[in-house]
Amino acid sequence: MERRESASYFTVLLYHSPYLYFSSQKTKRDVNNFDQDFTREEPVLTLVDETIIKQINQEEFKGFSYFGEELLP
Predict the structure, then answer these.
(1) Count of domains forming the chain
(2) What is the Cα–Cα distance from 66 to 62, expressed in whole angstroms?
(3) What's a Pfam family this protein contains (predicted)?
């Protein structure tokens, strides 16, 4: 089978396949699928090492900015 025919076959197969999983999520903030050991924990702000930040391609974040509430006057 040619590669093109194979790709078309799988595209059609996936498109017509019924979903195997339906989420029971009620709202966007519903966390029932997560272990309560994690959802009960208080969030902790963790500082990131600047050397790690410098290794990441910052072009991917061009136009994005975020300032945490603790940094605002």
Answers:
(1) 1
(2) 12
(3) Pkinase_C
Is 31 contained in some domain? Answer: yes
| Type of residue at 8 | S
DSSP 34: S
Structure tokens belonging to residue 47: 């500082």
CA atoms within 13 A on the CB side of 5: 2
Alpha-carbon gap, residue 54 to 57, rounded angstroms: 8
First-to-final CA distance of the chain: 65
Which pLDDT tens digit goes with each residue over 11-61?
666 666 666 667 778 888 888 888 888 889 888 888 889 999 889 998 988
Domain extent at residue 41: 23-59
